Amino acid sequence: MRILSGIQPSGTLHLGNYFGMMQPAVELQQRGECYYFIADYHALTTSGDPLLLKERVRGVALDFLACGLDPARTVLFRQSAVPEVHELAWYLSIVTPVGLLERCHSYKDKLARGFSPNNGLFSYPVLMAADILLYDADLVPVGKDQKQHMEVTRDIAAKFNEAFGATFKIPEAGIREETATMPGLDGLKMSKSYHNTIEIFAPEQEFRKKVMSIKTDSTPVAAPKPVEGSTILAMARCVADAATVGGMEESMRRGGTGYGEYKKQLFGWLWDYFAPMRARRAELEAEPGLIDQVLADGEKRAREYALTVIARARRAVGIK
Ligand code: ADP
Ligand code: TRP
Q: Which of 119, 159, 195, 267 could join 211 in a cystine, given CB atoms 3.0 to 4.6 angstroms apart?
């Protein structure tokens, strides 16, 4: 089985990214051949700072390695190292109905947030489809917010196959129900665009401050606390065992303990959970040339595969 996913180098890795995408991606290394890439072309739709973009690409590569990506087994590469993806995006765009793209929530959200409606934002899902189809991916681990983009990818692949004959595999989205949407500090979906994130590699003081700022209601200390939809419990379930979280839930139902106490516990669990990855990241960061080496090797392996698929796509449409 071939597994593929991408992440934009557009911020610092937060709990939502980690549990929604990175952790499943790392675990899936046991189940198949993995291709993971850093979506720098996609990040251009919102970036605007060339130096920062370059720095963040390295940051994401470090994050992947620190979180357990094994570069001997998995292909880790920059999206832009395989520019043929644009050629494929063009072939796909001729079978992509405009209406399909107009319905994309992520495009509509961006416009609502004040981005100008340019073609890059609009055709973002076509490039994403090309990312996936260029590697014959069977499974694409992503968070729930990418579900619609995955449906678009499947639609485009089917339309292409219908128009030009069986060329592409139809990929499946791998969405983990238990962490489909990690809530942020305010209880809404954790996202860097909502400024409600907890960065997993933040320094201790900043990390603690963020956890302590999780929004809670004004239930008095003595009273039972609501457990449905609790952000504290949702985060705790990701990092503590069931019995420990069960204990916290019980205590909330009983009352008598304030939210501050629960947040302190949660901070301790989160901090300890990420400790080995934090240490590994610091080690890797100190190794000169490591990231360049890993990305150069990944690029070679990714490109080799992509060239066979692009040749197939060219034959299908009648180019060359
Ligand atoms: P952001 O919303 O912060 O901009 P991205 O869109 O860059 O995050 O998402 C990168 C990956 O992390 C995607 O696979 C996405 O589905 C996943 N992801 C992001 N936020 C969450 C969340 N709150 N819960 C679960 N997965 C998430
Ligand atoms: N759109 C994805 C996100 O914002 C990133 C991405 C680009 C991606 N191409 C992809 C994810 C291909 C999976 C497969 O998170």
A: 267
Topology adopted by domain 2-182+288-317 = Rossmann fold (3.40.50)
- The ligand with the least distance to the CA atom of 89 is 2
CA distance 111 to 117: 6
Mutate to test the pocket of ligand 1, among 4, 13, 17 (most ligand atoms within 8 A of CB): 17
Closest CA to 219 of 209, 211, 230: 230
Please report the atom of ligand 2 found closest to the CA of residue 4: 14
Residues 6+ apart with CB under 8 A from 277: 66, 67, 68, 200, 201
Active site (annotated) includes residue 192: yes
CA distance between the termini of the chain: 30
DSSP state at residue 200 = T
pLDDT 10s digits, 212-257? 999 999 999 999 999 999 999 999 999 999 999 999 999 999 999 9
Fold adopted by 202-273: Tyrosyl-Transfer RNA Synthetase (1.10.240)
**Domain segments of the chain: what residues?**
2-182+288-317, 202-273
Q: What would the mean pLDDT of 13-23 be, rounded to a whole number?
A: 94
CA distance 7 to 57: 10
The tally of CA atoms less than 13 A away on the side-chain side of residue 201 is 20
- Return the SS3 of 318: coil
**SS3 state at 139:** strand
Separation of 235 CA from ligand 2 center, angstroms?
24
Among all ligands shown, which has an atom nearest to the Cα of 173? 2
Pairwise CA distance, residues 9 & 5, whole Å: 13
CA distance 152 to 104: 9
**Global model pTM greater than 0.70:** yes
- Residue 275: CB partners within 8 Å, gap ≥ 6? none
Centre of ligand 1 from the C-alpha of residue 306, in Å: 26
